[in-house]
What does this fold into?
Amino acid sequence: MPYRRFFRYPTDIPIEISVSEKQLSKRKQLHNVSLGGISFKASCCWSQDTILNIRIPFVKPPFETTGKVVWCRRQDDLFYVGVEFLQTEDTFTVRMVEQICLIEQYRHQQAAQGRKLNSEEAAMEWINRYAADYPPLDAFV
It folds into this structure.
């Protein structure tokens, strides 16, 4: 198995992708997020080196950046598209998005067990239970 440069966090939050600022954003399902970029699920293959505008409206304010398609792989009826971030200063913001994704995933897991938590309650529980085990920013660089 090839060495991964960055740790990847699986998530299923919605993201918006567009090729230009004038194009209407297309909603996609985020597959995972890391310090180096994201991957998302799509119904068609995206060409390598395509520059994309990426928006994650789930967080406030919405996370926005640009990225470059570095790979596209077919799996069953979908394509998984790998995008590398172009703006290195996004590292800290992406780190926060990763944590928000994990907290939201935790909230959904709790809901599946019959516990309804709002975002703040889920964040406090997740921080108390898992934040100490969360890899430091430079652990996978």
